[in-house]
Design goal:
Number of domains: 3
Low-confidence stretches: 1-49, 414-423, 489-493
Structural class: mainly beta
CATH architecture of the largest domain: 7 Propeller
Radius of gyration: 26 Å
CATH superfamily of the largest domain: YVTN repeat-like/Quinoprotein amine dehydrogenase
Number of helices: 2
Helix content: under 10%
Shape: globular
Distance between the termini: 37 Å
Largest sheet: 5 strands, antiparallel
Mean pLDDT: 83
Length: about 750
């Protein structure tokens, strides 16, 4: 993530009364900035001269369709997600242009309200709230997206979990959600696989309701809510809630009636805001144990949300007299606060998020009982920019991957300096590439430069336009380049491939036959891997729970469905005879079926990173496993040819494909950023590494002659390299669930 995160749990969460109607409730919010290492948000020192926003305007005021917005998360200055409800269902709206346009995203029908959102990238998020699977029966809702909200997938909720109120993801794998439990108790659920599966944790008996959570490392979290003895409750863990310490209760100063959110840079830097009168509505802590009350301006009686942009600058939102919105800012780490002018007709504000000192958002309701989105800026005019575009290669066969790059710079640095505004930051945000009427791809800027890859360019010579949408400091601009796309040369080995979604939907291209899928079928767990038979007249699918589904001439030889696993299944590979297969779990556990020999596993060993894939030798007497850190583990006659273990990766490894055995073996590893690493006799034919991926790469499939490979993205797009040929993809085809695997007719 490129900027500060949302205030996790920083919202006054409605409670569900009889018939699903909500009854209002005062809220106190404990919030600070959740900064997770690497894939989370990195805490930074206050920039010289930086201040929180001083000018707020209405960016979107709904007149229908959105009753209220309860949560917001902005992983960049261009990308934000807001969650809430309309009269009948939960709702998520998103923007990719800094809030110029907000688009309603599709959520599962049973979801009635979204109350918390946590993202670890611009495309990967977890949302929690409430669902009503049957009349007047309310349980927790957990949704995930890996494609920027194009599809939100409903995940299974642990047994006896009532509505969730907040969620915090400290990394791309580790998330914790909190909320209601059975009468008079709370609930805590944790996931270690990006929100796909969840496990209940032991909740302190003194917690009657948990409303907010902040995890500032994968082990250290603060959860807040109500105490069973009355008043506010505050609970911490230093072992992710699963060790000997678990969750413990901390002392809250008298006069604090309820806490609804938490966010911390570290145990030495936490801010608490909410309802507690003029002297107890803000608490700060330097050790996570002792909390010091701070004063707020007269007139504000409830603070419902807060986000800290740096360790000094924070924005808090709430209301005055329960009707008019209120915004407070601090540049002292929460020890003193100032009121900001709020646009007229603004009702209660429930949450706020900032991507930079000059790019903040607040959400809630207007005084007509509909949703509202406010944008906060420093108030200075936008600086002009100049966009330069390039394409590589400039001439390419149709269906081949083309890399598009844009560099955005301040167009008038001298003029800016003369006006007293010396540019000290690079333009941020997104650049969209188009050719004629064809959308190609979108790149996110880093240091003023961004690139992306696409195979969608039309035949002929076209002008490629790079459109920069601007950010809170810089105005938008465009640049152009010329691209020539020629017809592909006939010939070569006939190829085909399948793409599979997490719902088991299967999509066949080229000479790949279709024999059925589980699309539209209720699954106990999402699909994670696809394996074709040797003659390509059948295939197996496997779910995270180990359930195996066989199609065509693929025989069913057993599964793990219905068996409790220590970790979810992440991969599957068959033997050369098609009369056996191996299933591999995230902890390196190996399960053999049919004539697949058991050659060893990593179960009960401590791994540096979870296992993400498996590949077998050509003779079926060995297999390799790969971890998310690129570590390779070889068994049987699978020879070790090298790995990325111990190397610093730009993105985690997500897949492996291999061929041969012994000294003739080779294998490729692929990262979620599209970086490809070739070892042994595997050839290197190019990658997407170094480009900006709007949707993460999820898998790699090699061609029949091992002279190329295909990279599959979660949004269905496919990038061919070497002698791989593009026969089509599911990009922009309205996927119900994200793509998770690709397999070739090799």
């Amino acid at each position: 993530m490129t900027g500060p995160a949302e205030s996790v749990g920083g919202v006054s969460r409605p409670e569900l009364g009889r018939g699903g109607r909500k009854r209002g409730r005062s809220a106190l919010v404990l919030v600070a900035l959740v900064l997770a290492a690497a894939l989370g948000i990195v805490a930074t020192a206050t920039s010289a001269g930086a201040t929180p926003p001083t000018s707020w305007s209405v960016q979107k005021s709904y007149t229908s369709g959105v009753e209220s917005l309860w949560a917001v998360n902005c992983p960049s200055t261009q990308v934000c997600y807001a969650g809430g409800e309309n009269l009948t269902a939960g709702i998520i709206v998103g923007t990719t242009d800094g809030g110029t346009t907000w688009t309603t995203q599709t959520v599962p029908d049973a979801t009635t309200i979204i109350q918390g959102i946590s993202c670890w990238s611009t495309t990967d998020c977890v949302a929690v709230g409430t669902q009503e699977p049957s009349f007047d029966h309310f349980i927790g809702a957990i949704l995930t997206t890996v494609d920027g909200g194009t599809s939100w997938v409903e995940q299974a909720v642990p047994a006896n979990d009532y509505p969730f109120k907040a969620v915090s993801c400290a990394s791309d794998l580790d998330c914790i959600a909190v909320g209601m439990g059975p009468t008079g108790s709370a609930s805590i659920a944790a996931s270690t696989n990006s929100g796909v599966t969840w496990t209940n944790q032991t909740v302190p008996a003194s917690a009657s309701l948990l409303l907010g959570i902040s995890c500032f490392t994968t082990s250290d979290c603060v959860a807040v809510g109500q105490s069973a003895s009355g008043g506010a409750g505050l609970f911490i863990t230093t072992d992710a809630g699963v060790g000997t310490s678990g969750w413990t209760s901390e002392t809250v100063p008298a006069g604090t009636s309820e806490l609804t959110g938490a966010s911390c840079f570290s145990s030495a830097n936490c801010v608490v805001v909410g309802q507690g009168g003029l002297t107890n509505s803000v608490l700060t802590s330097s050790d996570g144990i002792t909390w010091t009350p701070q004063s707020i301006p007269i007139g504000v009686n409830t603070l419902n949300g807060v986000t800290c942009i740096t360790d000094s600058d924070c924005v808090a939102v709430g209301n005055v007299n329960g009707e008019t919105g209120a915004i407070l800012t601090t540049s002292t780490g929460g020890t003193s606060w100032s009121s900001q002018t709020v646009p007229s007709a603004t009702g209660s504000l429930w949450a706020t998020a900032c991507a930079s000192d000059s790019a903040c958002w607040a959400v809630g309701g207007n005084q007509s009982a509909d949703g509202i989105i406010l944008a906060g800026v420093t108030g200075a005019p936008l600086l002009p920019t100049r966009t330069t575009a390039t394409v590589s290669p400039a001439t390419t066969p149709q269906g081949s991957a083309v890399t598009y790059q844009a560099t955005v710079a301040d167009a008038e640095p001298i003029s800016a300096a003369r006006s007293g505004r010396i540019t000290v930051v690079d333009p941020s945000g997104a650049v969209t590439f188009t050719a004629g009427g064809t959308a190609l791809c979108t790149a996110l800027l880093t240091g003023g430069t961004g690139s992306c890859s696409s195979t969608a360019a039309p035949l002929g010579t076209d002008t490629v336009t790079a459109t920069y949408g601007g950010d809170a400091i810089f105005a938008g601009s465009t640049g152009t380049a010329t691209l020539t796309v020629v017809a592909p040369t006939p010939g070569g080995t006939e190829q085909g491939y399948w793409e599979m979604g997490s719902d088991g939907g299967l999509f066949a291209f080229g000479n790949a036959p279709f024999y059925g899928s589980t699309g539209g079928t209720h699954l106990n767990a999402p699909m994670v891997a696809l394996a074709p038979t040797a003659d390509h007249h059948g295939y197996w699918m496997v779910g995270a729970d180990g359930g195996v589904f066989a199609f065509g001439n693929a025989p069913f030889l057993g599964s793990l469905g219905g068996i409790t696993l220590n970790k979810p299944i992440v991969g599957m590979v068959p033997t050369p005879t098609d009369q056996g297969y191996w299933l591999v779990a995230a902890d390196g556990g190996v399960f053999s079926f049919g004539d697949a020999p058991y050659l060893g596993s990593l179960a009960n060993l401590t791994l540096n990173a979870p296992i993400v894939g498996v590949a077998a030798t050509s003779d079926g007497h060995g297999y390799w496993m790969v971890g998310a850190d690129g570590g390779i583990f070889a068994f049987g006659d699978a020879s070790y040819q090298g790995s990325m273990g111990g190397h610093v990766l730009n993105a985690p490894v997500v897949g492996i494909d291999a061929f041969g055995s012994g000294n003739s073996a080779g294998y490729w590893l692929v990262g979620s950023d599209g970086g490809v690493f070739a070892f042994g006799h595997a050839g290197s034919f190019g990658s997407l590494g170094g480009t900006t991926q709007v949707s993460p790469v999820v898998d790699l499939g090699a061609t029949p002659d091992r002279g190329g490979y295909l990279l599959a993205d979660a949004d269905g797009s496919i990038s061919p390299f070497g002698d791989a040929v593009l026969y089509g993809s599911m990009f922009s085809k309205g996927l119900i669930a994200p793509i998770v695997a690709i397999a070739t007719t090799s």
